[in-house]
Amino acid sequence: MRRSPVVVSTPVMAAAVMMTLLGPWSPSRPGSHVILQDTATLEYMVSNVKVIHRVNPASRVVAVRVYLLGGARFLTDSTGGIEVLLMRSAAREQYRTATPTGSRYLLEATADWTVTGFVGLAEDFDASWELLARRFERPSFSHESFAQAKASLMASARREFAQPDLRVRYLARQGFYQGHPYAVDPWGTDSSLSALTYEDLERYWDEQMVASRLQLVIVGPVSKARVEDAVRATIGQLPPGGYVWTPPPPIQQRESSWLI
Q1: What mean pLDDT value characterizes the chain?
Q2: Average pLDDT, stretch 15-28?
Q3: Residue 212 near residue 74 (C-beta atoms within 8 A)
Q4: What is the Cα–Cα distance from 75 to 73, expressed in whole angstroms?
């Protein structure tokens, strides 16, 4: 489902989204092993990937989110939608070739990050994680899966732009964020998506897919050692990179004007 980008100013809020139903917690202090207010919630680093982990042994369900931080600040008018297209193409390939696990997967894009993950039974964690982690590998999906994902995203973009309310919202965002990274739609437009090629996805992966951009949030009856092993064997193999999150640039104030 395509949604209008949500602007969230700090990556820590990515964890708060999943922790809200599990009780209050506070941002951690710097350190490799930091206990938040809830002593069952850990924050640690594994192979340059930041992990926020709520251990809940009383549950049979595990929820996982992997955030690719940066969002629109890594995109341009010509590459809008490329992260979603990369993930959607990999997911299409899995639908065609992989054995289903029963877990429910998701994919969302906002101005601050692209997030994918799953909710499923803890006994399916290993198989579900393997499928999820493949979405962060260098593109190895078929051109058929790429074409199907691209066509689906382009159709969604056209439908959204054809609806008056959503079109007004799009134009308002363009005007308000003029000259700001948030002006780029992370879901892409018909024109940006139509121009993207398989080779563009490979090039983007080579340049932008690094472990330091990832933040893993996991809640459920999965041990820290099991999470560390899973990360090291998969997304922890990505190049480390040197990404450090910083606040987005301020929005420049300007006089009102007409958009026609």
Answers
A1: 86
A2: 43
A3: no
A4: 6
